[in-house]
Specification:
Strand order of the largest sheet: 1-2-3
Largest sheet: 3 strands, antiparallel
Region (Disordered): 1031-1092
Keywords: Coiled coil, Repeat
Biased composition (Polar residues): 1055-1076
Helix content: 55-70%
Structural class: mainly alpha
Coiled coil: 215-256
Radius of gyration: 52 Å
Distance between the termini: 120 Å
Number of strands: 3
InterPro entries: ARM-like, ARM-type_fold, HEAT, HEAT_type_2, LisH, RELCH
Strand content: under 5%
Shape: extended
């Protein structure tokens, strides 16, 4: 592409009015001496003409100046215009700010003027303002009704806040201060100028209220009340007379009824005239009677008298009395005795014909105690359950559910727990439409409660509700909602709630979904999809914490669902017979008799509701069905290929073989081994599957699917890399989850044969196994040994392979032994492991000898028995005598690795001692000093390797807590000797040696300083004791640990002072300067003689 010319660029800039850029281009062209651009020249000329016209009086001679000066003037003019515009804009902004400040100041001045005017009117004569609390005159009524003024509002705000603080309403005071944004309510100075602080709000109230006269008003009220009392007394007298009259008439009527003819007497044969005349009875209806009853109901004694006067003669009347009396009785009963009233309240609710009265009694039942305790809640819930069993479902829904919905939002935790328990109690007696709508909504709200006790109670009630959901179409429509609530409960942050969800809610849901026929197709499939989604959405080798938590939760659920999957498979099998529970299972029977339950299999993780004997009848029945399943699988050769042709024969088993197991395998292949917790969850899930479904299912269904991945082949490098990844991720899960979970007679040969064959495959690189997959093999061995599975047997396998002619096999054996020694018992270590390693350490191949050295170090730190440690020492000494310096380097590297973990005596007496000897020997060799190099290059490199290994061992030694004597007498001199071998170290290594020497010196100096302080303290005590003895005074008290001085002697010419204690042992006192010590001793002796 051709470069544009200056003319085209100039025309383009001028056409778009980029004048400044055009000027700069013109200036650069002029300064560089390039040719003139006509378009730019004409533009400059027009600018000059314009400048000349706009500036009259300028001499014509100035227009003829140089083009450069004219152009600078035009640019300066443009910049000046821009600066003027900026200044104008800045002035306008400052003007707006000043106007706002002026308005604010005017408002403040106005408020201050009002405050000063008020102060001047209240403080006539210049006296301080006082608050007058007399009632205002009549002409001040208008002022009192006027709107509140700003200073009045500020004063009231201050007084109110002061009152709140005095009354300890601190939170209310804080809220009040936050709401009052235009004032500091804690400072009176913020109210207004020239105003004294008024009295407290309480004092104002008391003074103002004391001046109010209620005399006239009290007289009028007293007279009206007296009139009302007189009228009531007259009405009461009339009512009593009426009651007496009515009672007499009632007695007369009863006597007439008893004296009348029998109803059965024939009257048809008599003449009409002879029939007894009908007596007319007119009951007077007195309005005052009804008014009296209404008035007397207000008094408890009168109400009770009326109830006594009208004792009911049937059960219906008794129910009415209960409905009227219980609300008045309950508040007067002690709190810890109110549960005694529950039967009466329940009877009233059951029999009362009036719905409002029933609702009032039900409300009284739920509010019987403000914070009901567990026993009280149990009584109320049990009563409600018994009551709900006697009532129609419509009445339960219309009366119980509204009360429960109100209690869901109650502020007391105990009330919310009560309503949670109530939901489970009434669930079996509700109609499906109410249970699937209102009740589930209540439980969903309670599952999200902030209190863990409420959530726990809600989970229990939810489990009861799910167990009675039924298999109707409407119930099946709630499956997703209930499953979502189940997962919410299982994800609860509190372990107690999660435990209840797993032990009660999950079994109920599994049983219900099995009855609906969706346990496998929906619930099981959704669980596997959740795990797959968590892995695929993360997309990383190391999963995030959220993905790990999701997998842990899901696999925990899967492990607990597996018994129900087995039960579902058996229940749909051709040989299933419905169970008859003749006797409880063994563990439940033992629990009922107060005996300890029999132990379960290790790692089974079963709880009571997940025992197969509960689902299938008993232990014998469960074993029988597992045996029949094994027989069926063996006879029909159950495999994915065979079931595809007859998928409808046994759909439940087909789903397990074609869907469940392949999905588990797919998840296992997707999870990297770095996610240890996820791998462990997979192993637990698959091992539980194998234990529940039996050995035949594991060997003919699960094992072939895993072997398809482990024994696959690759045709190119990309496929080989993918195959290696799949094998590494699947190997541990297959060995631990499938083979080791088989029954005991089958598991042992399966595991040992596979480990032996795998070792040979990795060592010999057979079946596209590679040597770099050795860490996967050792990880599997370590996992098996960690669970104490076949440890001795694997030692025997490695012993058999010890004499294998292939070098790679022996190297693999050494790596396996390095893992095994951490788990083998001392007897096996002494009899098998040590002889095997000694054999390998004398192998003709140096690679094997090198690899075996680190294993000896592992034995030294894992087996503290003295005979074993002595054998390890002898082997290390033997290896150090090998002329091959690479052996010595490997031994030193092993020392460096085990120093921090070794037993102190073994570390100090052997490892550090050997390292110091080797360092001293290397430093004393003259050929390693700073002399002309006379060594061969190979020998120099070998010695340099030994020196580097010694330096690393010294670093590891000084990082441990070792005795100062060892540092002073052994480590520090050895490092100084090692420092002399200057030709064997680089500059950085020599700096490390100097740093180590300085560190040793610092520790030695600190030790000497501490020793001198101790010696000075002992000498001071000695002097005080001698002075006290010279004065015949008792010795000053000393600490219990300090020895008492009985005599002292001075060593001639040695500078040492020996003190003989009361225990008979001499204590030497050392002084660095012998002359000073002798002078001190002479002075002390002279003092003793003078005092004597």
């Amino acid at each position: 592409m051709s470069q544009p010319s200056a003319d085209s660029v100039a025309e383009w800039l001028l056409a778009r009015q980029f004048h400044l850029t055009a000027l700069e281009l013109h200036m650069e062209l002029v300064e560089s001496g390039s040719r003139d651009v006509p378009a730019l020249s004409q533009f400059m000329a027009s600018l000059d003409a314009t400048s000349a016209r706009n500036a009259p009086g300028v001499p014509v001679a100035r227009a003829s100046q140089a083009a450069a000066m004219q152009q600078h003037a035009a640019i300066d003019e443009l910049y000046t215009n821009m600066e003027q515009q900026d200044l104008l804009q800045e002035k306008e902004e400052r003007l707006a700010v000043v106007e706002f400040e002026l308005r604010t100041a005017q408002d403040s001045i106005k408020a201050l003027k009002e405050s000063i005017a008020l102060t001047a009117s209240n403080n006539a004569g210049g006296a301080p303002s006082q608050l007058h609390l007399n009632l205002p005159a009549v002409d001040d009524e208008a002022r009192l009704r006027s709107p509140i003024k700003p200073y009045e509002q500020r004063a009231l705000n201050y007084l109110v806040n002061t009152y709140l603080l005095e009354a300890s309403y601190r939170l209310t005071s804080i809220t009040f201060s936050d709401e009052v944004t235009n004032q500091n309510v804690e400072s009176w100075e913020d109210v207004g100028a020239n105003m004294d602080q008024p009295p407290r709000l309480l004092e104002i109230f008391r003074r103002l209220y004391s001046h109010v006269s209620f005399k006239e008003q009290g007289k009028s009220q007293l007279s009206s009340l007296e009139t009302e009392v007189d009228s009531l007394r007259s009405e009461l007298a009339a009512a009593k007379a009426s009651i007496k009259k009515l009672a007499a008439e009632n007695t007369q009527l009863k006597s007439r009824v008893q004296a009348g003819p029998s109803v059965a007497a024939p009257v048809a044969a008599k003449n009409p005239d002879e029939l007894p005349a009908a007596r007319k009875l007119v009951l007077p209806q007195t309005p005052i009677h009804s008014r009296l009853l209404g008035a007397l109901q207000k008094d408890s004694s009168s109400r009770i008298n009326i109830e006594i006067a009208s004792v009911p003669d049937d059960s219906e009347g008794l129910v009415w009395v209960l409905g009227r009396s219980l609300p008045n009785v309950v508040p007067n009963v002690l709190l810890n005795k109110r549960e005694e009233l529950v039967p009466l309240i329940l009877a009233g609710i059951r029999l009362h014909p009036d719905k409002p009265a029933r609702e009032a009694l039900l409300n009284q039942l739920f509010s019987l105690v403000k914070k009901p305790e567990p026993t009280q809640r149990a009584v109320i819930v049990s009563g409600c359950s018994s009551l709900a069993a006697c009532l129609p479902d419509a009445r339960i829904a219309s009366e119980f559910l509204p009360q429960a919905w109100e209690l869901v939002a109650n502020k007391y935790v105990e009330r919310r727990i009560l309503v949670a328990d109530l939901c489970g109690a009434i669930a079996p007696f509700l109609a499906p439409k109410f249970r699937e709508a209102a009740l589930l909504d209540n439980l969903k709200t309670l599952l999200e409660d902030k209190s863990e006790e409420v959530r726990e109670a809600a989970v229990k009630s939810f489990a009861l509700t799910v167990s009675v959901m039924g298999t109707s179409t409407s119930a099946a429509a709630c499956l997703e909602k209930i499953q979502s609530m189940l997962l919410t409960a299982l994800k609860d942050p509190v372990d107690k709630v999660v435990a209840v969800s797993r032990q009660q809610l999950l079994p109920a849901f599994c049983e219900w979904s099995a009855e609906l026929g969706v346990l496998q197709s929906k619930f099981g499939t959704s669980l596997l999809q959740n795990v797959t989604k968590a892995i695929s959405s993360d997309g990383r080798r190391q999963l995030a914490d959220t993905s790990v938590m999701e997998m842990e939760l899901t696999f925990g659920v899967v492990r607990m669902v597996l018994p129900f999957l087995f039960y579902h498979v058996i229940r749909t099998s051709p040989f299933y017979v419905p169970a008859t529970f003749t006797q409880p299972p063994a563990h439940l029977a033992a629990e009922a008799n107060g005996e300890p339950a029999p132990p379960t299999a290790a790692g089974s993780e079963e709880v009571d509701l997940f025992h197969l004997d509960l689902l299938l009848g008993d232990d014998a029945t469960a074993s029988k069905y597992r045996t029949q399943l094994d027989t069926f699988i063996a006879q029909h050769a159950v495999a994915p290929e065979s079931l595809k042709h007859n998928a409808s024969f046994w759909p439940a088993l087909n789903w397990m073989v074609e869907t469940f197991i392949p999905n588990l395998l797919s998840i296992a292949v997707s999870v990297d081994i770095s996610n240890a917790s996820c791998v462990r969850d997979l192993v637990l899930a698959i091992s539980r599957l194998v234990k529940i479904f039996g050995s035949a299912f594991a060997l003919q269904v699960v094992k072939p699917l895993f072997l398809q991945v482990l024994n696959a082949s690759a045709s190119n490098e990309v496929e080989l890399l993918a195959l290696r990844t799949r094998r590494t991720r699947t190997l541990s899960i297959y060995v631990q989850g499938v083979l080791a979970a088989l029954p005991e007679p089958v598991a042992k040969p399966e595991v040992l044969n596979y480990i032996k064959q795998l070792t040979l495959n990795v060592a010999l690189q057979q079946g596209q196994w590679l040597l770099d997959q050795m860490p996967a093999l050792t990880a599997v061995v370590a996992d098996l040994c960690e669970h104490r599975i076949f440890v001795k047997e694997m030692v025997e396998i490695m012993w058999d392979l010890l004499v294998h002619p292939t070098l790679a096999v022996r190297l693999c054996i050494v790596e396996v032994f390095r893992v095994l020694v951490k788990f083998v018992d001392p007897q096996t270590t002494a009899k098998r492991v040590l002889p095997a390693l000694i054999t390998l350490s004398s192998d003709p191949e140096p690679e094997v000898r090198h690899a075996s050295i680190a294993t000896f170090g592992s034995i030294a730190i894992s087996s503290p028995e003295k005979p074993i440690v002595e054998k390890v020492k002898m082997q290390f000494l033997t290896l150090l005598e090998d002329p091959d310096r690479t052996i010595a380097v490997e031994v030193l590297n092993t020392f460096r690795a085990i120093i921090p973990q070794a037993e102190p005596q073994f570390r100090d007496e052997f490892i550090i001692h050997r390292v110091c000897l080797m360092s001293t020997s290397l430093g004393e060799d003259r050929t390693n000093a700073a002399t002309p190099n006379i060594l061969e290059p190979a020998e120099l490199r070998a010695r340099a390797g030994v020196a580097t290994a010694l330096l690393d061992a010294m670093k590891a030694t000084l990082q441990c807590f070792i005795a100062d004597e060892i540092i002073a007498d052994g480590v520090a001199p050895a490092i100084r000797q090692l420092r002399k071998a200057v030709t064997l170290f680089s500059d950085s290594q020599r700096e490390d040696l100097d740093r180590l020497i300085a560190e040793c010196d610092a520790k030695i100096m600190a030790r000497n300083s501490l020793s001198l302080k101790s010696e000075d303290s002992t000498r001071n005590k000695l002097i005080k004791g001698l002075i006290a003895a010279a004065k015949n005074e008792p010795m000053p008290p000393s600490r219990p640990s300090a020895p008492s001085v009985s005599s002292y002697t001075a060593g001639a010419g040695t500078g040492n002072l020996s003190i003989t204690t009361s225990s008979g042992g001499p204590v030497p006192v050392t002084q660095t300067n012998a002359v000073q010590e002798n002078k001190a001793l002479k002075s002390m002796t002279d003092l003793f003689r003078r005092n004597k």
